Amino acid sequence: MGLEDFLPSGNERLDSQLRFTAEIDKMTAVLRRTLLVDGSRRENDAEHSWHIAVMAMLFQEYFPEPVDLGKAVQMCVVHDIVEIEAGDTFAYDAAGNLSKAEREKEAADRLFAGLPADQGRYIRGLWEEFDAAVTPEARYALCMDRMQPFFHNTLTKGHTWGNGTVKRAAVEARMAVVKENMPEVYRWMEKNMDRGVANGWLGE
Amino acid sequence: MGLEDFLPSGNERLDSQLRFTAEIDKMTAVLRRTLLVDGSRRENDAEHSWHIAVMAMLFQEYFPEPVDLGKAVQMCVVHDIVEIEAGDTFAYDAAGNLSKAEREKEAADRLFAGLPADQGRYIRGLWEEFDAAVTPEARYALCMDRMQPFFHNTLTKGHTWGNGTVKRAAVEARMAVVKENMPEVYRWMEKNMDRGVANGWLGE
Predict the structure, then answer these.
(1) B22 contacts in chain A (CB < 8 Å)
(2) Adjacent-strand bridge partners of A31
(3) Smallest Cα distance from B87 to chain A, Å
(4) CA dist A58 to A42, A135, A143, B20, B56, Å?
């Protein structure tokens, strides 16, 4: 089963697009540390990417600048595709995050080479723009990417905070982009961090 | 765990957006008949929605009309949200499809009532537009919604065709929107149907 059963169309360009489509289905097997809201299991990258894409349609009013929503949603759906090759790096893994940029760049080189050049550039461009976090769309999409696992944590007894192993200062640093760009949402995050510390979910 | 642990922000509008965000995480538990490309398990609605959203970024050139890609991608991410309440209806379940529209309308009434009215109207509008399949974005997104499980079937020995239980004519009817709108893609589908019949995956 899988790509070995792929039947070519006779059009190389179409075939490369179809093969890429099958390839990225591996996002469903890249597990994150975050639990689903019901706590039943860890979520995967496909689910996470979908979730923040819908969120981008909901929270624009708390972001201070105009955002091209269609572009932000596209960024959300592709922002983690390189993890098919590079793996998910846990937010609070300092060593892993040091090598993350290098690993992801190599992953992007391999992965996007499978697409027609124009489309490889387009999707890689969206991913690089997201990663640089400079444009409004990128900062907004990054806020969604930070809010979503934070929110899941607040609903799953701080699961990825590891019963206080992760310290509040580390979470504050991670959520700085939300503090800067979406202060009203950040105030709600602070309440949750207060509760997290009080419950022993988050370290002081 | 879950929404019973939700800590309100003090802003009702923000709270309703956050609650909706947590609510739609249930998409990860709505299982489809389709297998993942590697055949390891059935895919869920969140994964499927994400997958067709990325596909929408790849196959535009085979669609004869200009498409607002940002809008099409948004349609893809929300097109199945009503299934949280209504459940997934198998494509080749004739009885289930008779009651589908009614069940989904009731589901939409309940589900979107949880959002601020403007946002409920916006997302419901995208879903209704998708379902009506009249605008270019809706027809294009619908083509992605048809291509994706078809493609998975071709890579998983025709899994949802049930060893020939589903007949070719039923698949052709289901794929008519691709035939009409994306003829080059449909020619590749026909090759796959020929192989499916030859292998006994698809009934004649």
Answers:
(1) 37, 151, 155
(2) A44
(3) 18
(4) 24, 19, 12, 9, 21
Name the token pair of B103: 């069940």
B202 within 8 A of B161, measured Cβ to Cβ: yes
Alpha-carbon distance of A1 to B76, in angstroms, equals 26
Residue B149 to residues A4, B35, B36, B103, B120, Cα–Cα distance (Å): 17, 8, 9, 22, 28
Q: What is the pLDDT of residue A126?
A: 97
Shortest distance between the Cα of B5 and any Cα of chain A, in A, equals 5
Contact B28, B60 (CB under 8 A): no
- Report chain A's mean pLDDT, rounded to a whole number: 96
Of A11, A62, A123, the CB nearest to B184: A11
Closest CB from A38, A53, A115 relative to B53: A53
Q: Taking a C-beta distance cutoff of 8 angstroms, is the pair B188, B144 a contact? A: no
B161 vs A188: CA distance, rounded Å: 48
Please report which confidence band the pLDDT of residue B98 belongs to, taking 50, 70 and 90 as the band edges.
Answer: confident
**pLDDT tens digits along B139-151:** 999 999 999 999 9
pLDDT confidence bin for A183, thresholds 50/70/90: very high
Give the position of tokens 């983690």. A80
Distance from C-alpha of A48 to C-alpha of A39, rounded to nearest angstrom: 14
